[in-house]
């Protein structure tokens, strides 16, 4: 589903900080999206130490209505207030240890565009061009190009179907219970 004005609905969810989450990359990504002619709205859910400086840097987009800051949301509200209203989740991190927001977005049928953060290949779960689209950390133009590709509803459908299969096979509640039961039995 799309907004009546057919903007690509992009979500960014997380802690507003620079070292790990690379939140200051957002203005450069948005500038690149604009240069590519992408019609979008970015909704940011989160809070953190970089909030004021990031919002100041994003103020031109906020004033145009291209960026909406939702603030910190309880985890229970993220599915209905963010994922249900999004076409794409953008992750800009340099490293992660298990990005719950990616698994949540995938389970909700939201396409994922993510950096190839340190740790992204450890589980062999995220596969570029198969269940998500990836870009090199810090490469704003590549991030924008991957976001632009998600305008294709058929590509998004392919990626989200594969992502939902991944979640069902590896990260569902049922699979987690089986894995924990197996680990306890082995002990």
Protein structure class: alpha/beta
Radius of gyration: 16 Å
Task: Report the order of strands and helices.
Answer: EHEHHEHEHEEHHH
> If strands are numbered along the chain, what order do they take across the biggest sheet?
3-2-1-4-5-6
Helical content class: 40-55%
- The number of helical elements comes to 8
Q: Which ranges are low-confidence, i.e. pLDDT below 50, for 5 or more consecutive residues?
A: none
> Overall pLDDT, averaged?
94
Percent strand equals: 15-25%
Overall, the morphology is globular
Count of DSSP strands: 6
The main pleated sheet reads as: 6 strands, parallel
Distance between the termini: 47 Å
List keywords for this structure.
187 residues, alpha/beta, 42% helix
Give your account of this protein's structure.
With 187 residues, the protein is α/β, with parallel strands linked by helices. Helix content is 42%, strand content 16%. It has helices spanning 26-35, 51-57, 59-64, 78-81, 100-107, 140-149, 153-171, 173-186, and strands at 8-13, 40-45, 67-71, 88-91, 111-115, 133-135. The protein has a 6-stranded parallel beta sheet, sandwiched between helices. Strand 1, helix 1 and strand 2 form a beta-alpha-beta unit. Helix 1 crosses helix 6 (140-149) and helix 7 (153-171) runs parallel beside helix 8. It is globular and about 55 Å long.
């Amino acid at each position: 589903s799309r907004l009546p004005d057919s903007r690509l609905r992009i979500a960014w969810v997380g802690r507003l900080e620079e070292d790990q989450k690379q939140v200051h990359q957002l203005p450069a990504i948005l500038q690149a999206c604009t240069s590519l002619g992408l019609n979008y709205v970015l909704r940011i859910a989160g809070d953190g130490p970089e909030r004021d400086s990031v919002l100041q840097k994003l103020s031109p987009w906020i004033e145009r209505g291209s960026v909406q800051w939702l603030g910190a949301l309880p985890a229970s509200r993220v599915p209905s207030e963010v994922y249900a209203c999004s076409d794409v989740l953008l992750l800009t991190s340099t490293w992660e240890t298990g990005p719950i927001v990616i698994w949540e977005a995938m389970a909700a049928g939201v396409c994922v565009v993510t950096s190839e953060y340190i740790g992204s290949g450890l589980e062999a779960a995220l596969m570029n061009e198969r269940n998500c689209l990836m870009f090199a950390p810090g490469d704003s133009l590549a991030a924008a190009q991957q976001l632009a590709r998600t305008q294709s509803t058929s590509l998004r459908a392919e990626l989200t179907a594969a992502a939902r299969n991944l979640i069902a096979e590896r990260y569902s509640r049922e699979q987690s219970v089986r894995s924990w039961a197996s680990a306890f039995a082995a002990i």
